[in-house]
Amino acid sequence: MKIRWAILGTGTIATEFASGFEAANAELVAVASRSKEKAQFFAEKFAIPAYYDDYAELLADDAVDVIYIALPHSHHHQWIKASLEAGKHVLCEKVITINKAQLDELVQLAEAKGLYLAEAMTIYHMPLYRKLKEWIEEHDLGPLKMIQASFGSFKDTDPSVYYFNKELAGGALFDIGTYALSFVRNFMTSKPTEIMTMGNLHESGVDESSAIILRNAEAELATISLTFRAKMPKQGVVAYEKGFFTIMDYPRPTKAVFTSYDGKETIIEAGAFAQGLNYEVADFSELILNGSANETLAYTLDVLEVMDKVRKDWGLVYPFE
């Protein structure tokens, strides 16, 4: 049996999702755009059987099991809710909602309807992270002490693009910070209980650069550095008492280097960068087919809790909240 997927939206991430779509347990059967021409062009380009110029019409299609939402952040809550109410499972692009209250509401709705809901966060699905966790269990590394995650990208401030558009929930935190925080949460033993931050807001009103410090009940520390106005490596460092992992391009990594306390290096490899979105599709489809526990959702809720706190400290509120 194959799970039948449909896409809401035809932008950049939707194009990447459709262009490489391949999973043994899934098939792509429909797409919707507010423009009939865009929907038709997209469907023909990627050999998708059905297309719609109305999102609600796609949600009414009985031949669809899962909705993949690739719309701007500001539209996520509305269309996740509509999809769940239509009886569809939902995988939504990051950031899944703009605050935890929205996600709490949607989680309750999904549970009431017996549906799966998750964020399309590659970090939770890349094979390398599974291999690393197995490697950690097999080796005596001592307690986790420190995590560092940086991500810097130089973005155009043109307000027609969502990066610096407050009406579309722009800002570095929601676009790249969600990766850094998810990376940290993926390794932390428990969720952060102490959160400190400093942030710079752009004249558009969204966050431009920030530093975040986290600590949990186990006294594990994490530092996150983010900016939309300077290029920085997507680098993660996870330090245990007896050595540390360095993971480059951590949103979709294929290699990690473990350096022991005496300087010896071990290279650990798994997965393929180009298959990042397909790993999400395969895992989410498998959840539905097997009725398995939705383990990544708890991490997503924890990340949103951190985001709520740092935005409160920065004074960043979106107009539609």
TrEMBL record:
It holds the Pfam family GFO_IDH_MocA_C3. Residues 3-117 form the Gfo/Idh/MocA-like oxidoreductase N-terminal domain. It comes from the Bacteria. Keywords: Oxidoreductase. Gene3D superfamilies: Dihydrodipicolinate Reductase, domain 2 (3.30.360.10), NAD(P)-binding Rossmann-like Domain (3.40.50.720). Residues 129-242 form the GFO/IDH/MocA-like oxidoreductase domain. SUPFAM superfamilies: Glyceraldehyde-3-phosphate dehydrogenase-like, C-terminal domain (SSF55347), NAD(P)-binding Rossmann-fold domains (SSF51735). The keyword Oxidoreductase applies. GO terms for molecular function: nucleotide binding; oxidoreductase activity. Belongs to the Gfo/Idh/MocA family. This is Putative dehydrogenase.
